[in-house]
Structure to design on (238 residues):
């Protein structure tokens, strides 16, 4: 027996700003929100066009640009931030360029900027979702910088819940997700994801829309705040 698909939430008359919303997980969230009836503003560092979505060029590290964006859409309902903030350092700690490690925290500063500057312009029933990552709680080779940033994002999310209520804030922690960010193609790409997920309970890479559906849940469910939802194929518990 095939399970019935859950109906799409109705976000008609809702306005959502999705930062990092023009590629990967952010794009999937932007498109799901659009399909559910929301007015969507998708921000990214590069110019782009997405049908039915207002795309704006904005850097999450540019506070004045963010301030202008939020003021323009004063009273908006949802804020999703999936922006990476820029390049992230990869490799063992004892071989890592420390400037690269420090620069990896641009993701955290981008999230702090968006919450600090965005929440004052949100409706009182609004909701924020930030994107972390499973290396925050499971060591993987070469991911100490990414994991440290993810751990900071998750702590920030939980601690913010008290300070910004009644606006809700939650996070999603994706596992290894097959997104356009991967430079690999063809068999090389398939081999990489297969090897990296072989010990996961669901031994495959996730899809952006699988993470986006968790984001939609956190935006819709008004009884959830200050929590992190894992969407990792069982990577943490494996």
């Amino acid at each position: 027996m095939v399970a019935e698909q859950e109906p799409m939430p109705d976000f008609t008359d809702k306005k959502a700003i999705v930062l990092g919303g023009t590629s990967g997980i952010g794009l999937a969230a932007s498109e799901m929100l659009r399909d559910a009836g929301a007015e969507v503003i998708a921000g990214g560092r590069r110019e782009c066009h997405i049908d039915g979505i207002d795309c704006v060029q904005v850097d999450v590290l540019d506070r004045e640009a963010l301030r202008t964006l939020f003021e323009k859409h004063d009273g908006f309902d949802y804020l999703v931030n999936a922006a990476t903030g820029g390049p992230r350092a990869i490799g063992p700690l004892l071989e890592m360029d420390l400037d690269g490690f420090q620069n990896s925290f641009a993701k955290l500063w981008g999230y702090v900027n968006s919450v600090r500057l965005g929440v004052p312009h949100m409706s009182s029933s609004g909701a924020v979702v930030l994107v972390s990552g499973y290396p925050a709680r499971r060591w993987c080779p070469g991911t100490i910088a990414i994991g440290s940033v993810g751990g900071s994002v998750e702590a920030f999310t939980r601690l913010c819940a008290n300070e910004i209520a009644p606006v809700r804030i939650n996070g999603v922690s994706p596992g290894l997700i097959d997104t356009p960010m991967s430079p690999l193609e063809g068999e090389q790409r398939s081999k990489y994801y297969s090897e990296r997920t072989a010990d996961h309970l669901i031994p495959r890479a996730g899809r952006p829309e699988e993470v986006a559906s968790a984001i939609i849940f956190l935006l819709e469910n008004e009884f959830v705040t200050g929590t992190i939802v894992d969407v990792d194929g069982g990577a943490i518990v494996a």
About this structure: The chain has seven helices and seven strands. The helical segments are 24-35, 63-72, 98-104, 106-118, 144-164, 186-196, 208-220. The chain has one domain: 15-231. The domain at 15-231 is CATH 3.40.50.720 (Rossmann fold).
